[in-house]
């Protein structure tokens, strides 16, 4: 496989990014972003691309670091677009919506991941206090939830004005680490994720043959990742999934709530099939996924790889939560706002 025409620093970052992007416990679909500062230039992952492809296609957009920082300090609505070094950028690359966050961090290398282990802490009540023990010894800070992009950057700036940090835990979002080199940043990331590791509950198995027979001809299918069925077969996971949206990327790919088939139909497959066919005919209002309580999950038969990966992320997060805990969810108006946000619509369009 031929690498894109990267600078040596970008090539090192690309190798690291490809490793991170291949691990679904760190990165799901087009989520997450990485960057490296090289002189006056900040090379940052482009929006909508998959980090796993960093060695296969141009991935990083160059922006003028000082210009981004100046425009952020000046309160400009778009501090990144005018700072893009267009003559050095591959055609069509649009810097990540998190570019301002990468510019704000003082580290040469910044890694922003949606690590499952971090999210499983970041959606818990009193998470900041709970995190003190596992993160003892790290220079870290808790960042209250803010919408990705400039609002999150401003929230991080407020925190960083009080603390010198290498690690940020973002409420209802994920994890950011910085380092002087790619190796240092990766090593720090690995140490933090290991410290945050949580036990997983086992979910009852789904009857895949019965589910496949039920879905046939209805416009629904089984999810790509078998572990997704635990969302429906484990009553605790289902209750937590139905509580609301846990993190922004869920909204982008799966919608603002978890849809569930009526319990009264769970023992009448004929009626359930009719209901499934009717739900599938709702066009753009058809949900991405359906939980069949006690039986398993179904997804639209045209669901893309990014959405499949995001459903698997939820299936990885939920069994790491205490069974009796109701997670902290995004407010309903924030979830709806994310669904209609222009920056996220652009990112959805880039996903295969």
Automatic annotation (TrEMBL):
SMART domains: Aldolase_II (SM01007). InterPro entries: Aldolase_II/adducin_N, Aldolase_II/adducin_N_sf. Residues 12-200 form the Class II aldolase/adducin N-terminal domain. Gene3D superfamilies: Class II aldolase/adducin N-terminal domain. This is Rhamnose utilization protein RhaD (Predicted bifunctional aldolase and dehydrogenase).
């Amino acid at each position: 496989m031929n690498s894109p025409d990267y600078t040596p620093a970008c090539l090192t970052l690309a190798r690291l990014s490809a490793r991170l992007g291949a691990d679904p416990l760190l990165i799901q679909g087009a989520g997450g972003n990485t960057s490296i500062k090289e002189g006056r230039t900040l090379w940052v992952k482009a929006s909508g691309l998959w980090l796993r492809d960093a060695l296969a296609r141009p991935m990083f957009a160059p922006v003028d670091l000082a210009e981004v920082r100046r425009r952020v300090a000046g309160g400009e609505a778009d501090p990144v677009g005018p700072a893009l070094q267009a003559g050095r950028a591959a055609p069509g690359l649009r810097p990540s919506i998190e570019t301002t966050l990468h510019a704000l961090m003082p580290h040469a290398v910044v890694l922003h991941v949606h690590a499952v282990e971090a999210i499983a802490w970041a959606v818990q009540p009193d998470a900041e206090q709970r995190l003190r023990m596992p993160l003892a010894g790290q220079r870290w800070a808790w960042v209250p939830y803010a919408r990705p992009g400039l609002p999150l950057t401003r929230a991080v700036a407020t925190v960083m004005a009080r603390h010198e940090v290498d690690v940020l835990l973002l409420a209802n979002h994920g994890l950011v680490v910085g380092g002087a080199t790619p190796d240092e940043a990766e090593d720090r990331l690995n140490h933090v994720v290991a410290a945050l590791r949580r036990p997983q509950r086992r979910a009852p198995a789904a009857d895949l043959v019965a589910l496949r027979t039920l879905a046939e001809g209805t416009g629904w299918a089984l999810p790509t990742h078998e572990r997704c069925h635990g969302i429906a077969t484990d009553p605790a996971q289902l209750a937590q999934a139905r509580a609301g949206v846990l993190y922004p990327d869920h909204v982008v790919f799966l919608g603002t709530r978890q849809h569930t088939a009526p319990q009264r139909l769970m023992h009448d497959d004929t009626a359930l099939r009719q209901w499934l066919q009717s739900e599938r005919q709702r066009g753009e209002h058809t949900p991405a996924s359906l939980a069949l309580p006690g039986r398993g999950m179904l997804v639209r038969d045209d669901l893309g790889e990014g959405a499949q990966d995001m459903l698997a992320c939820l299936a990885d997060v939920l069994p790491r939560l205490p069974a009796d805990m109701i997670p902290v969810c995004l407010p309903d108006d924030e979830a709806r706002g994310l669904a209609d946000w222009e920056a996220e619509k652009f990112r959805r369009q880039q996903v295969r």
